[in-house]
Structures are given as structure tokens and as C-alpha cells.
Amino acid sequence: MDERRAILQEARKLIGARDSLLEFARLLVPGYMVNPALLETIEAFEAIERGELNRLIVIMPPRHGKSMLLSQLAPAWYLGRNPTRQVVNAGYGIDIALEHSRKARGFFTSEEFRRVFPGVGQGQQTSAGQWDTNQNGRYYAVGIDGGLTGRGMHLGIIDDPVKNRREADSLLIRDHDWGWYISTFYPRRAPINAIIVIMTHWHEDDLAGRLIKQMESGLGDKWRVIHYPMLSGKNEDIPLWPEQFPLEYCLATKKAMTATGNTRDWESLQQGRPSAGSSANALWTQDCIDKNRVHERPTMPQVAVAIDPSTTNKSTSDEAGIIAGGIGEDGHLYIIEDRSLRASPQGWAAEAIGSFKRNQADRLIYESNQGGDMVALTLATVDPMVPTFGVHASRGKRTRAEPVAALYSQGFVHHVGPFPELESQMTSWIPGEPSPDRMDALVWLISYLIEHMAHQEQTFVMDTVEEFGGIDTTGVMQV
Fold this sequence. Notes:
The protein is of the alpha/beta class. 41% of the residues lie in helices and 19% in strands.
């Protein structure tokens, strides 16, 4: 009788693991622990396997089990139930994708797996980069830069497409990742397909942010979004996984990550709220910018473009900040364009002059402190007919930025639409730190426009008058 009972219990356990991802995980990983976020994610993945859900975004803190579940255990269970299907797992680099693939392969080839899915086994391909089932199914690992030519997918998993804060803050890298998703990853889906994006929500404009925004606009796929912060509750005192990360640990993490007054990394990395992060010591707040935002460009009698130039074109170089704005008929200031980019001097000069012409600007403003002659000459090389104006910094960055921030607080500066890169720099910059390119260009622009309003045309305080190509640049303004 005891032997029969044991056989029945074993059969129930194996049937349970075949039908339930949670029971499968508990069988293959003794002592497997879950939190509320993982339980909801398991339910969502089971809906994907049944064909009831095809788009899933999972946002939760690091080390809370999302990758082990979705990139390792779930694909093995999925291929056990669907051994003829194709799975692609992508990460920010091939190394992280290969690590997930090796662990998924280990689960797939385990003795426990064979007991749950008899008859399903490994095929001829056994490498970490690509391993097959014995029924022509496949798990393929690729980095974000990798190609997928000739490969299709029924299940596509993108796990941590962003490596770190620096990559998240780079528009160039975000555009690259989006381009890879749209042109390389997305077209490889089979007629029956599902896509899962697992990530730390570093930036409002990262892959998850763009997919959610596209969905909200009615133009993109419909995604189910599972989002759990490390700490929830009105006072942020309820940990997501107290058994693993008790409240004291979470509070210590928050204290360390916000000690400088900058909450941005805490809010994005641990809480999954990139828009909430800002510095307590920053001169600008997102609420202030949002409150003054408008969505239609007004008539502006005076328009200018400001450039904070970069001198090199390396991947580690700063971008050239290029911001356009003007004075409205109501006397308020309006920011209308951000064309900042990482490019050679000829590249940023052409972009700045393009913005100048597109916006029918009156002046192109540039910083003249370091390499001012080179900047003016580069601009004149692209188009000698564009009137340029050099601004010379005679005061510190904080002293220059504070009056500009005060204008925002008083409701006199309006962003015409969203400028996520610029606004991110504004709300995270702490005086005393190196000031970022877009924000610097903004300060130069508004300082010039205010000086113009105060003195009306030709009454600026001049230090010098510079001429390039016979064109009077009207000199250098002290800011």
C-alpha cells in the first residue's frame, strides 16, 4: 500500500510539474521561493503558453528572480510542452544571453525534466549559443547587436537589454536598441508568437518605455505590464520579498542610493519609476517642467538656437547640446527643439545650422570660452551666412543656471512637447557636478533671450566684436 501511495504521489507531482510552471520550478529547483511578482509572472507565462497572452513586460528590482524564471526555467518548461517550437533569448550582450541559455539547457537535460516530459530530449545541436530539441525545436541565444538571419521564433525573450545607467541615458544607444528590436528581432516572430521584455526600467524612453508609449498611443502592440517596486505602500515600508530582502535591507539600500540627494537611480532601478527620480538638490523638478508644458508652438517674434559644442566624436565623448527656443508674443520663453547629438565638429555644426534654418531663427548662440574661434570657424565653414553669437562664461555654472531655473519656477518658460533627454539632465543635475551638454545649451539659450528682452536688440554689454567671413557676429556676451 505504501509503495502504491508513493507511486501515485510521484505521478501527481510529475503531472503537476507538466501542467504548472510553479510546480515545475519547485521540482527542478529544490527550495524554490517565490514572491508576489513572480507568482503573477508565472500566471502570465502560463497564459502565454496557452495562447491567451502574447505580449508581456516585466519590471521588478534586480535579484528578485525574474531572469531565473523567465529566461531559464520557463523556456525549458515551454519547450517540454511545445518541443517543435523556437525560442530566442536576447540580452544586452551575448555573454548574459549565453549564461541564461546554459542554465535553461541544464534544466532541459536534467533527469527531473525527462521524468516530467518523457520522449522530449536534446537534439543534435548542443552548444550554449544554440541547442535543439529532438523534435526540431530550438533555444537560441543572441546579444542585442546579434543577427537573427534565417531564424524564427514562437517565443522571443529580451532580458535586460540595457547594461547600465550610462547606456540608458544615451539616446544613441536607446535608438540603436529600438532599431534592433524593430528591424531584427520583431520581424522574426512566427504567426503564433509571444514576446516578453524583462528589464530594469532605467529610463522613460528605454525599450519598455517606448513600447508602453506606443501602446498608449494606439499604434503599437497591446502589452500586459507587470510592475512591482522593491518597497510599496504609502510610506514605502512594505518590501516585495521580505523573506529574501527584509525591510531593514531595503531601507539601507534606499538610504545608500539616495545619500547625495539624487533619487533617480533608486526610483528607476529599485522602484521601476524612472520619471519619479530627481535630485532633491536639483534646480529643476519634473513637476515644474510638466506644469508649464504646452503642446502647440506659439508665434515667436524672436527665435535662437544655442549649441554647447563637443570637440571629439568618440563613443565616450559628450554630445553637442543643440537647443532651439524663442520669445512668444506673451513675453514668455518657449523651448521648441532639441537636436543634440554625438558627432564630429562638421556634424554638429550642420545639425545646429539645420535647426537654425528650420526654425527661422535670428541667431545661433555658442559658448566662446574654450575653442570659441574654432566653433565660429566650423559654423562659418558649413554656412558663412548664418549670424552667430558667442557667449562667454564669466560666472560659475550654478550662478548662470539659478536665474534660468527661477524663470521655470515662475512659470515663464514652457517646453513645447516633451524633451525627455533634456529634462532628465535638468532634473538630475546637482550644482557642483559637471553640467551636461543639453542643459548647458539651454542655459546659454535662455540667458541670451533674456538679455535680448531686457536690452532690445543692440544694447548688449560687449567685450569684443568678432568677424568671420565678413559677417558681424555682434560680439561676445558675458553670462
